[in-house]
Task: structure prediction
Amino acid sequence: MPTEDQVLQALRQVIDPDLHRDIVTLGFVKDVAICEGAVKITLELTTPACPVKDRLKEEAEQAIRSIPGVDQVNVKMDAQVRPTLAQMGSMMIPGVRNVVPIGSGKGGVGKSTVSANIAVALAQTGARVGLMDADVYGPSIPTIMGITDAPKPGEKGIIPIEAYGVKVISMGFFLKPDQAVVWRGPMLTKMIDQFLGGVEWGEIDYLIVDLPPGTGDIHLSLCQRIPLSGAAIVSTPQDVALQVAQKAVIMFNQLKTPILGLIENMSYFVCPHCGQRENIFDTGGARRAAGRMNLPFLGEIPLATRLRETSDSGRPIVVSDPKSPAAVAFQQIARALAAQVSIRNAEETAAEPVKITF
Amino acid sequence: MATPQIPTPVEIGRANQHDVKIRWNDGREIIYPARRLRLACPCAACVEEMTGRRMLVESAVPAEVHPLSIHAVGRYAIQILWSDGHQTGIYTWERLYEMAGQLPNSKIER
Result:
């Protein structure tokens, strides 16, 4: 009969390609059960959105099968999202494990559509997801997520509204269409505090924050209030947008917020009639910029009429047309983003956060 | 454009009743005299925003000024609540590390 040691020894051959360590050292292997020649284990990954889930499962099965005396293998997959280590010291949002702002620098690059679809795509993998619309000036998340209800007060704060498995909060919930937010900085900071500490988020693996364009009060407040897991930056491919995106990168660098990667939106257009591809805003610019700045590139989303329609009608494309090229792109980007969060969190475990005892 | 590697603090605590001690991840352990740290406050009320001219008058700061509490600002700085009521300064890792070079008592401990 094989021993537990033999099983663990065999599993040490399986390396997570993103975290560059074996799955035993990473603590993924749980509940090893051996009965005669049958071996049962659970692999607990750091995200249900793991892009290499199937590959790890297969490699683990093969590794165990190669042990003499094993005739039956059962690998169960599970996931437990680990918090950004620094986050554990923050009592402002105790149940939230990772906060991931999505910024752009320039406006009009499709940040809200990207944020909403990434949030829903993550929720579809089984993760617990929140979506905070921090764009007070033009809150478009309620429209994109098809929310028309107003949130209700709970015991400890506002109860976020759930749509497509995502808990959502937005300034748009509290405004009539004919109202505008005309606020100075201190009010914006208060709103961020409210949206973080004054909302009953509950247990959340990823809180996606849809930032307003620019590098202003809201960005600064968010980076100061809580240790963020890292930011993703959306840009269109053309130079003029990328130049502004670079300013967002510089801002996050200054505030020591890691950058999880760049996303290219409106990457290209495929004519639905003749099938010819047209690079309306150029293409590949964000990928090249990521290479230049030594940042991960998370993926590209094509321009598509369906994408615009689904956003306007409140049914994100990853829900309403999940097989479309744009939806597939969002699913891949969501997995790449989750992988980057896991990578950052693993690096930080090695680094240990600052301890303040004054 | 990945974040340039500057040292970051591992531990921020007390050197004595008033002074602040920071242990950096490059092994340095620096003691920041309380009053010196207060006088170096980088906030817009203490330093003129455009010119960088220091507006804080030394004699206006109590001799025995000391931090009452220190808390982290995001991932990049600390904010100090001072015994004279001041608390608007945000001391970034860069600024604190740069200050270390100007202090007489800096020593390297590995």
